[in-house]
Each structure stands twice: as C-alpha cells, then as structure tokens.
Amino acid sequence: MNQVLVAAKAPAPRRSKTRLVPPLDHEQAAELQRALLLDTLDGCRAEAEDVALLYADPEERATLAAVAGPETELVLQQGQGLHDALRLGLATRLSRGPTAIVSSDIPGIPPGAIGQAFAELGRGADVVLGPADDGGYWLIAMRERNDAPFHEIPWSTPAVLPVTRNRCREAGLRLVELAPWRDIDTAVDLAFVARDRETLPAPRTRALFERLEIPEPPTARLLESELIAGSPWRAVLTDQLSLGLSRTTSYTYLATPRAVFVVPITTAGELLLVRQYRHPVRDWTVEVPAGSVEDGETPIEAAQRELAEEVGGRSAHWRHLTTFYSSSAHISLRSDAFLATGVEVEAARPGEDEDVALVRLPVGAALERARAGGFQEGQTALAILLAAPHLEPA
Fold this sequence. Notes:
Elements: E1 3-7, H1 26-45, E2 50-55, H2 61-68, E3 73-76, H3 81-93, E4 99-103, H4 113-122, E5 127-131, E6 137-142, H5 160-170, E7 175-177, H6 187-195, H7 203-211, E8 221-230, E9 235-244, E10 247-255, E11 259-266, E12 270-278, E13 283-287, E14 290-292, H8 299-311, E15 313-314, E16 317-325, E17 334-345, E18 356-362, H9 363-371, H10 378-387
Parallel strand pairs: 1-2, 1-4, 2-3, 5-7, 11-17
Antiparallel strand pairs: 4-6, 5-6, 8-9, 9-10, 11-14, 12-13, 12-18, 15-17, 16-17
C-alpha cells in the first residue's frame, strides 16, 4: 500500500508563514497556511490510499485535527528537526510499504506527481525527489530504508537538493527526480505562485490569492543549481538564472543556515564578547557570541545555547532585536540579533574547534566603541547598536 505523510504545521497568526509578512498580514499568512495544507491533503488523497499528517509540536495536534478533519491520521514526529522528521518519518512507515513525505508549503500537488513517484519506486528507483525552486525538495519517496539521503545535509539552505543528490550518488542509490515545483517560504515565492495562480491545482489557494494584493515577482528565475563544494554547514553554489527575453546568467554564492547574534549584558553592567581567530580574514576579531541555528532549533534556542557555549552565560531576560541578511549579494545567511540582560556567567563550553577568549567591556565603553566604528566585525557592531536604545537611560 502506498503511503503519504504530509509534513504540517498548524495555521496560527504570528506563527505561520511569518516571512510573508509583509506583503501579507499575520491573519492572511495563517489563512494561506491553512489553504496550502488542505489543498495538499486533497491532492495526496486523490493519488494515494493512505495519507496522514506528520507534525512536530504536540500542542498543535488539536488544531491540526480540527483543520484536517477526523478522518485524518495524525503522526507525531520522532526526534527533532527536519533531519529526524524525514529520516524517522519514513523509517516508521516503510515496513508497511513504499512511503512518501510531502511538504505542506506547496500550492497543491501537481496532477499525477504522487502516482509517478510511486510508479518510479515500482520500476526500481531507490529514492524519488520532487525538486523545489528554492534549492530543497517538496517530496521524498523511498521503498526501503536508507539514511544516506539525510546524512550531513545543510538543512534550510539552497544547497539541500544538490547535496542530497551527492549523498544518493555516493551511496549507490538510484535517484529519480520529478518535475520541479514551487513551495512558498518567502515573499518572492509568493509572488511567483500568485502570478501563475490560474494554473494551480489548489482551489483554496487560488481563491485566497484573488483577495490578496501581492507584488509582481522579480525578473530573475532559477533554471538549475550546481554544487561546487559543500559541508554540513555551508556550500558554494552556482545557479543558472533566466532574466527573461532569452537572457541567462550564472550566479555563484555561499549558502549557509540561519544564524544568531547575542548581545549579553551581565548583572554587573558588562558586555560579554569573544576574541577569536577568523581564518578567511587572517585576523583576530572581537565579536558578540554567535553561531548557526541547528536543525530543529528555534532562533531563541540557538541564541541561548551559543551564549552558554561561548561565554558560559545564561539569562532569563531576552529581547529579539531584528532579523537581517548579512550580505545578500554574496551569501544566503539570514540572522537574528538578540539582547540578553541580567546574564550570569558560569563555565564556558566552546566547541572542540573553537579557540575563543572572553572579553568584558563596560556597557558604556562598548556603545562608544561601536558608534566610533571600533568593531571590525560588522554583524557585532550592528547587534550592539540595535541593543543601544534598550541599554541607555531614557
């Protein structure tokens, strides 16, 4: 029996599709999440006998049950993060037959795509992927368990699909890919899908788009992406882009996971920084504690972990300062800056490859240095300056 797990999050204002605000408001973003989920469920049910929802947050179960209906089986994800959701989600079902996991961030299911995926498995494919235009995939299907496609993948980056292809090739797995499809994570994704709404196999999503004001998409559109080099944390990609009117260009950039930067202020009124050697610039830098968001973490969880690891700090008082792109022309890095106050310092727990030294500065001196351009590390300077209004007397 062919089985489909639809990876789902409960639609809720201020939790659903927040990267689409603006151009949407939070209510519209949640409404879109609901429409995408229901259209995807309908598309899967049209082509598979057994369709269930795969969800990660136990608190979302009641909402998902109400949205999807009492006939829908709900399966709680094992483990943590996308890696475990896919790997263990498939593992729990494959003993019963070929299984696919489908994203619910897509505007419905391309007609025949689910059936084609299972047909390819029946013809001997080990893995079937449905490529997404953002560099990931909207579907993965397997007939037997194999963890190779999930090994050391730079999750939540544009390198997911090309690195997954490499993992399948290295493991000797026969990989078949479906036609590309678009998911909706960013405002640009939204603009492309809304422009083509008349052709979408997603009636609820189409109807919603008719009521929304969505800007036109950019001229550039991804044609293909080539992995130049990669690791679990970053990858160099060269993309071929269509610019319209038969014009194309190539674009090489670095793909990295989301990151966090923490401005930690102790109970004694000191800013905690770290001094460490940064090889790309062949120099030591003084920085706020920072690091990548690991698979399955929220940004605030990553910020709390980095504070503990790099300076031994912990705090009960956190403020999200902003979300920003570090250098959008060269790198996909999307970062969050946080302010942590009332920080208490214990023993630091740096990683094995981190050679860091703790630096303490009085808050006033740190702010003066930031305003004078005294921090060479730009993200550190930005985070401190964003924190300044919350640190100075009114």
